[in-house]
Design brief:
Elements lengths: L1 H34 L1 H10 L1 E7 L6 E2 L5 E13 L9 H14 L10 E4 L2 E4 L5 H8 L12 H11 L7 H16 L8 E4 L4 H9 L7 E11 L6 H4 L1 E4 L2 H7 L9 E5 H5 L1 H4 L4 E7 L5 E8 L6 E4 L3 H20 L7 E8 L5 E7 L10 H9 L21 H10 L9 E3 L2 E2 L7 E2 L5 E3 L1 H7 L2 H11 L1 H10 L29 H6 L9 H12 L3 E3 L4 E5 L6 E4 L7 E4 L4 H16 L6 H4 L7 E7 L6 E8 L6 E8 L4 H17 L19
Helix pairs in contact: 3-6, 12-22, 14-16, 14-17, 14-20, 15-20
């Protein structure tokens, strides 16, 4: 009984202690939330955390032999730091810094499409005017259109509480304030007032930083393009992130002031090149004083991308292509203005050279006048013909049809077809041959490029069989190259309408067939590689920024195999032998160019009918016995295959004999002009 009373007393004591403890916490919680709630809420409101970022360093782009294509230069920007700026004195701060900049003739970022001149405001059409007016008319800004420039200035001055009496000053400050809002200036985004200022200006701003609340000089990295004419379509460029791009990339940490790859390798390998910005998180009280640094993240540069391009081969590709296009233009093909060439390493399908003509200088691309000139050029120099251009292949398609005919047993290597020059099996699709060849077998038909022969083989096969073999060679399929590419068109498969007679046109590389030079080079390399088609690639390896560590590398041992032709080896050898005869048989269509060449070449010439002068196409690989390189050349409206084969010869001269391109040594014999 006594023990029971003891336990009861102990229980009552514990309960009393617990009630006391919770009562104390309850009273304090009531004090915090109710009696002193406003005070603590104000403290929390006034103590804020902001982030300061340092610009990222973009990785460089190099050729396989280390030539710089895209690199970096340190520049100085005048920046308004959100976390340091006095929000109540923004107008005065902007006015003061613009005054300093103008006295030194330094440019600042001015996008307002309104100017002050002749004692009044007026509209000014510039390259950003449409976008800026759209922003001004949005609900978060003015919400409506105004009839004249004075009304815009009046309403904007009210919005920003800007009351400067000097009208030029008023307009300039408003311009900055509008662009600050457009660029989403805030705790996550500082605002760049002026870019790439001089060293003198950097010093002046630094000396006056105590008077310019929130104004600092920040170092950033500007993209520079070395050897700007070497491979502009491949390298690409960067530019300021657009509003649409920001919607896509904001989740990946991009800000309104960031630069982003726009096309080419700069765009395709954005994630590798980008780098990581440095970030410092600071806590600031209501008086604007920094209390402490909460956390920091170190900046890290982007990775360096090494392309498979050989700078010397690329130089020859550019020079030889330009020369031969112009020679064709000057020798009767007045509409010949453009072309492309792609050279692959047969061992791994890496792009050794890829040129487009006409071309341009990527280092001048950001110059507005230069860009406008390129855009308005009717020859379309911005067009990447090597990877985006799709052209009828003409007779270079015949090796594919030859293999299909052999494999499907529609013909043998010893079967003869008699060419009577005009193939008229389908009256609506008559095929004319450039020669009167008589009875010929497959080897001779490939050597002399007999249209009659392959029209008949195509008829026997049917279009479904033809395009199925074309796909096995990668025609009408992506090559796998890292930059954007055209998928091309396969006649029959991609045709919107089809008649049976169209098959004979498709069989000689006409009809709807259209392939890129990159696809044609891969096609030639697949023939040379005994039917194994590898992924065409233009990125050799990716290393750390300082080159000390290789992060990934594509070699012959690890490159992806896209497909392997499961065909009779003797049939494939028959096609390869026919391509050898094109260059080495006295009657072969490329004998005049490669008959006595120092390396045995296998090839196929082609011309493709279109509006205007015929396109000329040439594919080849060499050496014949142990292939190392494959080349495809297309010259638009080139007329004579001597010019397209001449580009390939110049590249092989450099590759096999280290011979720089000298057009004067490449004599053109008009008797050698061949059109098949």
């Amino acid at each position: 009984m006594e023990k029971s009373n003891v336990y009861k007393r102990r229980g009552m004591l514990c309960l009393a202690v617990a009630v006391l403890i919770f009562s104390v916490y309850g009273i304090r919680l009531f004090n915090w939330q109710i009696l002193q709630g406003d005070e603590y809420q104000e403290t929390a409101k006034n103590n804020s955390t902001y982030s300061l970022t340092s610009d990222r360093t973009r990785g460089e782009i190099l050729t396989s032999d280390g030539k710089r294509l895209a690199t970096n230069k340190t520049i100085y920007n005048v920046v308004l730091r959100y976390s340091y700026a006095d929000k109540d004195k923004l107008n005065e701060t902007v006015r003061d810094v613009l005054d300093i900049l103008s006295k030194r003739n330094e440019k600042w970022i001015d996008t307002l499409p309104i100017v002050y001149k002749n004692n009044g405001y007026s509209f000014n059409k510039n390259d950003t005017a449409d976008e800026m007016f759209k922003f001004l008319h949005s609900d978060e800004m003015l919400g409506k259109n105004y009839k004249n420039a004075d009304e815009y200035i009046r309403e904007l001055s009210k919005m920003y509480k800007c009351s400067f009496t000097d009208k030029q000053t008023l307009r300039d400050v408003i311009s900055v304030r509008v662009n600050m809002d457009y660029k989403n200036y805030g705790s996550e985004n500082d605002y760049i007032i002026a870019e790439d200022v001089s060293a003198d200006m950097m010093q002046i701003i630094s000396e006056n930083s105590s008077k310019l609340n929130g104004i600092e000089i920040s170092t950033t990295v500007e993209r520079q393009y070395k050897n700007g004419t070497l491979a502009p379509h491949i390298v690409g460029t960067i530019g300021k992130i657009s509003a649409e791009e920001y919607k896509t990339y904001s989740d990946k940490g991009y800000g309104y002031n960031d630069m982003i790859g726009k096309f080419g390798i700069e765009q395709a390998l954005e994630e590798q090149l980008r780098g990581k910005e440095g970030k410092a998180y600071v806590q600031k009280n209501g008086n604007g004083s920094i209390i402490k640094t909460v956390e920091t993240e170190n900046a890290s540069p982007g990775n360096t991308v090494w392309l498979t391009l050989d700078s010397e081969l690329q130089k020859v590709a550019n020079e030889a292509l330009a020369y031969n296009v112009n020679q064709s233009h000057n020798n009767g093909a007045s509409d010949c203005q453009a072309g492309a060439v792609v050279m692959l390493d047969v061992n791994d399908f890496s792009v050794l050279a890829a040129a487009t003509y006409p071309s341009y200088d990527i280092s001048k691309y950001s110059n507005y006048d230069y860009y406008e000139k390129l855009v308005n050029d009717e020859s379309s120099p911005l067009y990447s013909r090597a990877f985006d251009g799709a052209f009828a292949p003409g007779s270079v398609f015949k090796p594919c049809v030859a293999l299909a005919g052999l494999e499907e047993k529609k013909i043998t290597k010893d079967s003869y077809i008699t060419c009577t020059q005009e193939y008229d099996y389908y009256p609506t699709d008559i095929v004319k041959c450039m020669g009167y060849h008589g009875a010929i077998n497959m080897n001779t038909a490939l050597a002399v490029s007999c249209n009659y022969y392959f029209a008949e083989v195509g008829r026997r096969l049917g279009v479904d069989s033809i395009y199925s073999y074309a796909e096995k060679f990668g025609l009408g399929l992506r090559t796998g190259v890292e930059i954007p590419e055209n998928i091309g068109i396969l006649a029959g498969r991609d045709s919107t309408s089809w008649m049976e007679g169209n098959t004979v046109q498709a069989a000689i590389g006409q009809s709807d067939n259209a392939f890129t030079p990159a696809q044609l080079a891969s096609y030639a390399a697949t023939i040379a590689n005994n039917g194994k088609r590898l992924r065409t690639h233009i990125v050799k390896k990716i290393t750390s920024y300082d080159r000390s560590q290789t992060l990934s590398e594509t070699t012959a041992d690890n490159v992806n195999v896209l497909s392997t032709l499961t065909v009779d080896k003797d049939n494939l050898k028959t096609v390869q032998q026919g391509m050898w005869s094109v260059c080495n048989d006295y009657n072969g269509t490329a004998y005049s160019v490669f008959g006595n060449y120092g390396v045995k070449v296998a090839a196929k010439t082609g011309t493709a009918e279109n509006s205007g002068t015929d396109h000329t196409v040439f594919i080849c690989y060499a050496p014949f016995d142990k292939p190392q390189v494959a080349i495809a050349v297309v010259i638009e409206h080139g007329a004579y295959t001597t010019y397209s084969s001449g580009v390939a010869k110049a590249l092989m001269n450099k590759y096999f004999f280290n011979k720089d391109y000298d057009p004067d040594s490449e004599s053109v014999d008009e008797a050698g002009f061949v059109a098949h």
